[in-house]
Design goal:
membrane, globular, Vanillyl-alcohol Oxidase, Chain A, domain 3, 10 helices, eight-stranded antiparallel beta sheet, alpha+beta, 2 domains
């Protein structure tokens, strides 16, 4: 079935103060905040019967949005103070025009991940979205040497009844942070990582199971009401630990 994507731009305060309104405008709403700025790109994704139309452009999407950006991020690994400028410049360059396109759903509802990167992604109660993002923004403003690549991606999902789902029994907001690795080069991220993770824990967050985190079993017991129930099921179905690995041992023991 065809899908449609619409892009708009707003100040971060407008989006956070009108979050329910934005959520009602679309089947799949998410937004991208550009750290070290007030800028947000809003994305509405819906099913549609409109014929295919695309705003894709190799020059803007790849020459600028990938090759130039990667080069500037590499330069900023030597001059971290450039990161805020890069975030603001690329928002102005690529995200300040309203865009709309439609195509088959697998082209509209997916995202091409072009960069090598480090990522953290936590699900928090939806009502904590504004509090968490504003605290992260304030921490970056208070510590100018702590830099953050764009974007902070914020998306939403309904609660479910899956025992170890980050959205177990609550409507959730996923707040995803990223630090790129230009040309494979690692950039300092520990302070940003720990600041973000502290905020996520403070507002009742649960980490994405496929992303980086520093949580242990003690953390998960607090985060998941049914964690012990799941552990009992797991031990019954895998009594010898055949399906355990180093990561799962940290989670369950």
């Amino acid at each position: 079935k065809p899908g449609q994507i619409r892009n708009h731009f707003y100040p971060v305060s407008q989006v956070l103060n009108n979050l329910d309104s934005h959520l009602k405008k679309s089947e799949y709403f998410r937004f991208l905040w550009f750290p070290h700025s007030e800028n947000v790109s809003v994305i509405y994704q819906d099913h549609t019967n409109k014929p295919p139309s695309s705003s894709a452009n190799w020059f803007w999407d790849y020459a600028v949005g990938f090759y130039l950006l990667e080069f500037l991020l590499w330069i900023s690994s030597f001059l971290p103070g450039l990161v805020g400028w890069i975030n603001r410049f690329f928002f102005w360059l690529l995200f300040t025009r309203k865009k709309e396109s439609s195509d088959l759903s697998h082209r509209i509802f997916t995202y091409e991940c072009r960069f090598k990167q480090h990522v953290q992604d936590w699900a928090i109660p939806r009502e904590k979205t504004k509090e968490a993002l504003l605290e992260l923004k304030a921490m970056l403003e208070a510590h100018p040497k702590m830099v953050a690549h764009y974007p902070v991606e914020v998306r939403f999902t309904r609660g479910d009844d899956i025992l170890l789902s980050p959205c177990f029994q609550r409507d959730s907001c996923y707040m995803n942070i990223i630090m790129y690795r230009p040309y494979g080069k690692d950039v300092p991220r520990l302070d940003y990582w720990l600041t973000y993770e502290t905020i996520m824990k403070k507002v009742g967050g649960r980490p994405h199971w496929a992303k980086a985190h520093n949580c242990t079993r003690k953390d998960f017991e607090k985060m998941y009401p049914a964690f012990l129930k799941f552990c009992a099921i797991r031990e019954k179905l895998d009594p010898t630990g055949m399906f355990l690995n180093a990561y799962l041992e940290k989670v369950f023991y």
